[in-house]
Amino acid sequence: MQIPGPTNIPDRILRAMDRPTIDHRSAEFARLARECLEGMKAIFKMSRGHVFIYPASGTGAWEAAIVNTFSPGERVLMFETGHFASLWRGIAENFGLEVDFVPGDWRRGVDPATVEAKLIEDARREIKAVVCVHNETSTGVTSRIGDVRRAMDAAKHPALLIVDVISSLASMDYRQAEWGVDVTVAGSQKGLMLPPGLSFNAVSEKALSVSRTAQLPRAFWSWENMLQPNQSGFFPYTPATNLLFGLREAISMLVNEEGLENVFRRHHRHAEATRCAVRAWGLELLCQEPKEYSNSLTAVLMPGGFDEAGFRDLVLENFNLSLGAGLGKMKGRAFRIGHLGDFNDLMLCGTLCGIEMGLGKFGVPFRSGGVGAAMDYLNRN
Ligand code: PLP
After folding, report:
1. Contact status, residue 160 vs residue 69, Cβ threshold 8 Å
2. φ and ψ at residue 129, rounded to 5 degrees
3. Minimal-distance CA residue to ligand 1 atom 13
């Protein structure tokens, strides 16, 4: 399975979850929860604020970020970087927010200069938050969040910065504290190498304080209701106990054993090798800005007249390899290669082999040699 999440789950994590569910009001559970809550702070690179863990998919954590920070009718600045940014806009609008949605062509990330200009224009300081998807899973484009922060500072605007890292956390460098991010939205099923089912809000002290006066109604997603029980290692409702066993194992593998910086280097190396293969095939990357290439997935444009869905079906049928579908505006036009999570050189080479053989069988005009180009890169680096 080489879709850009859910990702392959290491046996170690499967084994860690393969045990009886324990009492979620016991001392043993409290130790587990505290280890997960603290460990996630290391992964988000934050020391203050709080990490909230929900038994939900990423969409739930999007909703949590919105209902805890906004009041009805407030303004929010969002960017059309792709399918997931567009879905997030829909959720904000469902909650009655006024979304200023900056259009985009799905081939570039958030433009920091536009952020600065939009915030300077907002003389009455009505924009309550700038919302970005760090890594657009539909396009393989990574927005530069550190530069977005600098743009917000240059405009001297008090808006919150809210970022979706669902397909970049624990795969690509991310610095909640240093980049002054107020709410980060994440999920378990990608870089964290877990099954779907957990999602996260990593929240700054500023956002916690905003949440105390924000007026949108909330119950299940309430940060306030979660904060106090979390202090002693508990949750206000039944947590996803066995997924937390898996999360503790994942944190140990990523932070204590491999080390986050090595994890990022590994993802960068596999992403570069993948891009070498795509260029050697003579195909086009969807991402047009090299500074914004994603290290967790690569979206590849199919030559005109060739349908990505048919190509993916052929690859699945012949090689038992699942590639990521074209989403939204890219349906039919681009397929995606996931190279994140538990992944190594041979898995990458196998994936690229499946694609190269598939291109031949599907009759796509291309040059062979992509796998060789990727192997050369891996050997040199
Ligand atoms: N945001 C991004 C960037 C994603 O990649 C996804 C899912 O792939 C989501 C949000 C939605 O998350 P979920 O499907 O877990 O609800």
Report:
1. yes
2. -155, 150
3. 58
Q: What mean pLDDT value characterizes the chain? A: 98
Q: What is the pLDDT of residues 119-140, one digit of tens each?
A: 999 999 999 999 999 999 999 9
- For residues 346 and 26, give the distance between their C-alpha atoms in angstroms, rounded to a whole number: 43
Residue with tokens 């596999």: 270
Burial environment of residue 205 by CB neighbours within 10 A (0 to 12, 13 to 18, 19 or more)? exposed
Partnered with residue 202 across adjacent β-strands are: 51, 184
Residues 346, 27 contacting (CB under 8 angstroms): no
**How much distance in Å is there from the Cα of 368 to the middle of ligand 1?**
33
pLDDT reported for residue 22: 98
The SS3 of residue 99 is strand
Q: Which residues surround ligand 1 with Cβ inside 6 Å?
A: 5, 57-59, 84, 133, 137, 164, 166-167, 187, 196
pLDDT per residue as tens digits for the range 149-167: 999 999 999 999 999 999 9
Average pLDDT over residues 224-233: 98
Span from the CA of 280 to the centroid of ligand 1 (angstroms): 30
β-sheet with 334-338: strand ranges across: 284-285, 297-301, 334-338
Q: Which residue has the tokens 């590994």?
A: 266
Calculate Rg over the CA atoms of the chain: 21
Beta strands in the chain (DSSP E): 50-54, 75-79, 98-102, 127-133, 135-136, 141-142, 160-164, 183-187, 199-203, 284-285, 297-301, 334-338
Atom nearest to 59 CA in ligand 1: 16
Partners of 13 in the β-ladder = none
Cβ-contact 135, 103 below 8 angstroms = no
Q: Is 104 exposed, middle or buried (0-12, 13-18, 19+ CB in 10 A)?
A: buried
Q: Which residues contact residue 321 at a Cβ distance below 8 angstroms, ignoring those fewer than 6 apart?
A: 1, 2, 315, 350, 351, 354, 355, 358
Q: Is 184 helix (H, G, I), strand (E, B) or coil?
A: strand
